[in-house]
Amino acid sequence: MNGIRQHDIIKICYLYYNEKKTQEEIGSLLGLSRFKVSRVLKKAIEDRVVTITVNGPEGNLAETEVDLANRFGLKETIVVKSRDLNPDAVMEQVAGAGARYLNRVIENYRVLGVTWGRTLRQMIHNIESVNTDNLTVVQLSGGMGTIEETDANILTMMLSQKLHARPYLLQSPVVVRDLQTKQALLKEKNLDQTLSVARTADIALVGIGQINRPGLLWESGLLEEKDYRVLENAGAVGAICGRCFDINGSPCVTDWDDRVIGLTLDELKQIKHKVGIAFGNEKLNGIIGALSGHYLDVLITDEVIARRLLSRS
User: Fold this and answer.
1) Which residues of the chain have pLDDT under 70?
2) DSSP assigned state of 300
């Protein structure tokens, strides 16, 4: 069936038969019409994917996805196989899943916000080029400089080209040396305009940054030892848009936060569809913090992280 993968068929069946979701609810969760959901369910029976229970090689992953979404109050989770794979292969799996997800739902949105990260970069490389109708792609926070094409400026441009959308760039670093510099930059018309557009985003793609080495904030040279010590003492476990939070999702209010240029965590929470993409044990606490703070509506990750999240009391 065009645009529907075997994994998606299994997930739709699991939601319908095991979770007792209606076709309308499944369509809303997965960005599909009720008619398409109905066709998938019919074809699943014809192909004997469904007998009494949901059958399929990825049935366990579908169950994990539903359990994870229910546990953390998410709209959807996407979990990819990762056992016996090296980190590069896992990144490719997660990025590919993220790309397929965005291609599936993007037609329902008008302003797409973007942050930065290695996995986001790979995801954007994997996105199929499509013609969107009046879509805007906007940067949600300042940049870090060109590190392996992971910077928000570059990713925003790449994504806008893939989706034939209008880009809005935030021409500033994600963090500046002092509050006075930040206040001066915020007076610039172009920067103020981009932040205003960012606050209207109805969907966001976000990575979850590491505070400790070898995170991109360290590699960029923006996070210095003195800043790290302050953030560590504040309990920081991760960052989105350069804004740091602790394991409970509470913002870490420090001098660092005062100097960040980008949406605040409260402003991020106002975006109605926030898609987080992250994997690996080094990101576990950051993912927990992001989920606890309700900074994500959709999580795309690997099976090891998914099961570690589910194993938490």
Assistant:
1) 1-3, 52-59, 84, 145-151, 214, 216, 218-221, 313
2) E
Predicted local confidence at residue 287, as pLDDT:
96
User: Residue 53's pLDDT is what?
Assistant: 46
What is the SS3 assignment for 13? helix
Crossing angle of helices 34-46/23-30, nearest 10°?
110
Q: Which domains does the chain have, with CATH numbers?
A: 1-57 (1.10.10.60), 58-311 (3.40.50.1360)
pLDDT, residue 218, reads 64
Per-residue tokens: 253? 């209010």
Query: Which tokens in the block code for residue 9?
Result: 């068929």
For the full predicted model, state whether its pTM sits above 0.90: no
Residue 176 · residue 259 · CB < 8 Å: yes
The pair of structure tokens assigned to 12 is: 């739709």
- Contact between residue 214 and residue 113 where contact means Cβ atoms under 8 Å apart: no
Instruction: Look up residue 21 and give its DSSP letter.
Output: -
CA gap 94, 205 in Å, rounded = 13
Cβ-defined contacts of 16-21 (< 8 Å, 24+): 16/41, 17/50, 17/53, 17/54, 18/53, 18/54, 18/63, 18/66, 19/66
Contact present, 208 and 115 (Cβ < 8 Å): no
Question: How many Cα atoms sit within 13 Å of 217 on the Cβ side?
Answer: 28
Say which residue the tokens 């602790």 belong to: 246
Q: DSSP string of 104-173?
A: HHGGG-SEEEE---HHHHHHHHHSPP---SS-EEEE-B-B---STT-SHHHHHHHHHHHTT-EEE---SB
